Amino acid sequence: MTNLMTVRAIRRIFAAAVLSVAAHAGAAAQSVPGVLQGDAPASRVRYRAEAMREATVMLGNWRNAWTRDDFASLEAFYLPDALLMFPGQAVPAQGTAEVRALLEARLRTVGRVDLQPVDASVGDDMIYLYQRYAIAVDPGDGNVSDEPALAGTATTVLQRDGGRWKIRAQVFSAGPLEPGGVLLRQGAPPSAD
């Protein structure tokens, strides 16, 4: 009788331990962004799609702030230790003060920016974007220019910060201006005609 009670006690302890580990593993899986219980591959695809949607909205708002020369709003899209580099810069701007100073200096001489995604890699808390970009000449008369001041490729790294995506690093590399002109014409706002 004692052996039977010991075997039952061992089975109960083992079952409790297995249930405890399973419950902990389920809770841990739910705490990691993009890893949900159920159909993991489908959950991962949904997470990536949602992350890209959020990043696209954020970059659209960033672009609008750029177009308005709204430096306070632009600054809020960057992490405090973010890195920013434009063509012709010897050293990247890093940190809130340097990024804002660079944006203020550059944006006063150029017009709107248009971006076209080329490739992306989405992780749990980081998104790596590879884009074509074109920055318009600012004609200074309030009109929209289709002439590129700068064009090429941009690499943007976004990081989740308090549930929101922010720019961790942004590097604009120079390229030929002709594709930039096409990109600016495609992204031009509709005419008032």
Question: Could you explain how this protein is built, in words?
Answer:
There is one protein chain. This protein starts with a helix and ends in a 7-residue tail after the last helix. It has 5 helices and 6 strands; from the N terminus they run αααββαββββα. Strands 2-1-6-5-4-3 form a 6-stranded mixed sheet. It is of the alpha+beta class. The protein has one domain (39-186): Nuclear Transport Factor 2, Chain: A (Roll). Mean pLDDT is 80; it is low at 1-7 and 9-37. The protein is 45% helix and 31% strand. The chain is globular. It has helices spanning 2-31, 40-67, 71-76, 96-107, 177-186; strands at 78-85, 93-94, 110-122, 126-137, 148-161, 164-174.
Write a short abstract of this structure.
The chain is 45% helix and 31% strand. It has 193 residues and is an alpha+beta fold. It has one domain: Nuclear Transport Factor 2, Chain: A (Roll), CATH 3.10.450.50.
Distance between the termini: 95 Å
In total, the number of strands is 6
Give the C-level CATH assignment: Alpha Beta
Order of helices and strands: HHHEEHEEEEH
Write down the overall mean pLDDT.
80
Strand order of the largest sheet: 2-1-6-5-4-3
Q: What is the overall shape?
A: globular
Give the helix tally.
5
Q: What does the largest sheet look like?
A: 6 strands, mixed
Low confidence ranges: 1-7, 9-37
Secondary structure elements and their pairing?
Elements: H1 2-31, H2 40-67, H3 71-76, E1 78-85, E2 93-94, H4 96-107, E3 110-122, E4 126-137, E5 148-161, E6 164-174, H5 177-186
Parallel strand pairs: 1-6
Antiparallel strand pairs: 1-2, 3-4, 4-5, 5-6
